[in-house]
Amino acid sequence: MAPAGPFFAPGGPLSRAHPAYEPRPGQEEMARAVERVFRDGGVLMVEAGTGTGKTLAYLVPAIESGRRVVVSTGTRNLQDQIFRKDLPFLRERAGWTLSACLMKGRDNYLCRQRFAEFDAQPMFEALDERKWLPKLRKWGRKTETGDRAEIADLPDGLRLWRDVNAKADTCTGRKCPEFEQCWLTKLKRRAEQSRILVVNHYLFFADLAVRSAFGAVLPDYDTVVFDEAHLLEEIATQYFGIQVSSGQVEDLARDAEALAAKAGGASKGGGGAAALRQAAREFFGVIRERLEEASGRVRFDAPDRGGPALEHEWALLAGALEDIAGTGSAHGDEAGSAVEVRSGEIKEALALVLRRSDPGYVYSLEARGRAGVILAASPIDVSTLLRESLFTRLHAAVLTSATLAVEGRFDFFQRRLGLEQCETRIVESPFDHEAQAVLYLPARMPEPKDRGWLGRALDEIHALLEITRGRAFLLFTSYAVMARVRVGLEREGSWTLFVQGEGSKAALVEEFKATEGAVLLGTTSFWHGVDVPGDALSLVVVDKLPFDVPADPLVAARIERILKAGGNPFAEYQTPLAVLELKQGLGRLLRSRSDRGILAVLDPRLTTRHYGRTFLASLPGYPVVRDLGSCRRFFQPGETP
Known about the structure:
Distance between the termini: 50 Å
Low-confidence stretches: none
Mean pLDDT: 91
Strand order of the largest sheet: 3-4-2-5-10-1-11
Number of domains: 4
C-alpha cells in the first residue's frame, strides 16, 4: 500500500495533474488518517469542512489499499460526482488503473420482463402517461445500463415507471426468462469485478437488510466509506423498521389484474383484484378516520390498534391477500410466484404493525395524498443494531461529512450510531469565512410563534433579495410557511421563483442555475446535497431553527426514552440534531473560495435563548451583523460590515 500523503503534496501527482492545484493541508491530513484506518482497521469519523477536498482524501487511500471499498453517499448528486468526475480524474489525469462500479437502488432500473408484459397489455392510470411508453420502448432497445437517469426529463412520480421498474418485490431472480440479459444481473457482475463500489445510503441499507436472500446487490466487502454520514441514523431507521402502505396493496392488485388478463380473464378487477381493492378501501378507510384531525405522522399505540371495526376490516383484508396469494400460486409461473410472495409479505408486515408491541419500536400512521395511508414500526434507537449488524463486521469504516460535530465534539453523533469508541478528527475548511460571508440575525425579530413573525419575515426576505438581486435559496422548516412566503413574493412579482414540488429536485436546481436572479424555495431535502458554486447563489435564508416536531411519533419516543434514563432530551438530542441541520442548510452558500454572500436566520432564539450559544459556537466564524445596512455594505465589493 503506497502512502497517500505524497500524492497531495506540492510536486506530487495531484499538483501535476490538476491545473488549479493548491496545497490543502487538511486534505493531506485526512488522507493519512483514512490510510491508517484502512491499514490497521477500526472506525474513523472526520468532519471535513466544505472545500477540504474530502472526496479525493478518501478515494486515493481506498484505491491504494487494494481492498474492495464501498463508497456510500447520502445523495445521488454526490454519487454521480464521485463516479463521473472524481474517479475519471484519477484514472485519466493522474494515470491510475482502477475498477469502479456505480450502483443505485433497484427501482432506478428498467425490468425487461415487466416492461415486455406491460407493453403487451398497457394499463395507464392517467392519459398523459401514454406518451412515455414509446419513449421507454425506444430507450430500452439501446440503453446499456437500464438506468432511468439516462432519460433526463422522466418525471419522478411517473406511475408507468412504477409498473416497469426492477423493484425487489416483483423480481423472480434466476427463474426469470430475462435473467441473463437483466441489467441488474449485468450490474452485479460488473460489481464483482470492481474494487470501488459507489452506492448511496438507501441502497446500502436495503442491501444490508436482504444480504442472506436473493436480491442482495453488493458483493462481499469489509471496508466502507460513508460520505454525507450525518444522514445515516435517519436512513438506517427506515430500513431497520417496517413500512407498509395502501399504495403497495394497489400495486399488488394491478399485478393480479395483469396475471388475470394474461390468462385470458378480465383486465379490470380480475384475479381477485376487485375483492382486494374493496377490502383495502374499507380497512384503510377505518385507519384514515384516525388521521382526520391530525397533521403529519401520529402514534399508533396498542390501544389504537384494536376495536371491532378495525378487527373486522383486517380479517377481510387478510383473507383477500390470502386469496391473491392462492391465485398467484395457481398461475404456475414466475409472475404468479412473485404475486404469491408479495401477498404474504404485505400480510405479514400489516400483522406485525397491528399485533406487535415491542418497546424498542414506535408504531405510527401517516396520511399520503388524498386516500393513501402508511403504517410503520420504527426502531427508537438504531445504535445497537448498527454496531452489531454492521460496524463490528467490518475491517474498517470511515464516516465523513461537513456536519458531524456540535461545539467541536462528536459525542452526540457517536452515541446515536453506537460508536462511542472510535477515532475522531475535525479538518477545517480552507475557506475564509470571515471575508466570504456574513451571518445576518435581524435585531428585534419576533419569535416564530408570534403573530407578527411572518409579516416581518417577508419584509426581511424582500429587503435581502433586493440587496442580492435574487440569487437566493429560501430554506423552510415547514411547507405551510413556504407556501405563504411564496404567495407574498408572487404578489411582489420581482423574481423568478422555483418551488419545491413543481419539478424534480435536480431539474429545479438546474433551472435555478440557468436563470438570472432566480429564487428557489425548498424544505428539508434542499438543505442537503445541493451544490451551486459561483454567482448564481449569493443569499441563503433559513426561516426558523430546524428543531424536529416534538409531536412526531419517532421524535416523541426518543424524547421519552431519554427522560426515562434520567437525561435531558432537549440538550442531549433535540438541540444537537437541530445544530447539525442548521449547519447543513447554511453550508449551501459557500462552495468555493471565490463564493461570497449573505446568510440569514430569521429566528431570534439564536441570540435570545441560552441554547443559541450552542448553535453559534458550532458554526464557522462568520461575522454576525444585526442590520440590513451592514448586509448592503458587505455586498458592495471593497467594503466590510
